[in-house]
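Q: What residues go here?
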């Protein structure tokens, strides 16, 4: 699941790996492990940034682009299945509750 999520969050021109973690809410260790696995599977490649030599961008390979399309189609099918089985009013209530929970999770004072 994490590989699919990464595939969906990499920009077509490449994304700095330092921006992927915060964008997806993943810890650096987990992201590093996932990216290494994806690189081994030929889904991504790391290329030097054109303007900042200290930074590398993560870019999808041709196989990675194919798998991103599979991931996107899977997400779309899942969303359609949920929308077909759960009334819109219930989904709206669920999204409101999840938004409140996410705010609580962002409150670092809550965990001290």
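A:
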């Amino acid at each position: 699941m994490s590989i699919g999520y990464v595939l969906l969050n990499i920009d077509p021109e490449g994304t700095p790996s330092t921006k992927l973690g915060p964008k997806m809410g993943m810890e650096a260790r987990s992201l590093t492990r996932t990216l290494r696995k994806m690189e081994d599977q030929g889904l991504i490649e790391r290329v030097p940034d054109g303007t900042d030599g200290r930074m590398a961008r993560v870019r999808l390979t041709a196989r990675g682009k194919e798998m991103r399309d599979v991931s996107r189609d899977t997400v779309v099918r899942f969303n359609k299945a949920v929308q077909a089985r759960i009334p819109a009013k219930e989904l709206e209530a669920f999204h409101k509750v999840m938004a409140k929970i996410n705010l609580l999770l962002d409150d670092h004072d809550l965990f001290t």
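A: Context that may help when evaluating the design: The chain is about 65% helix and 10% strand. The chain has one domain: 2-86.
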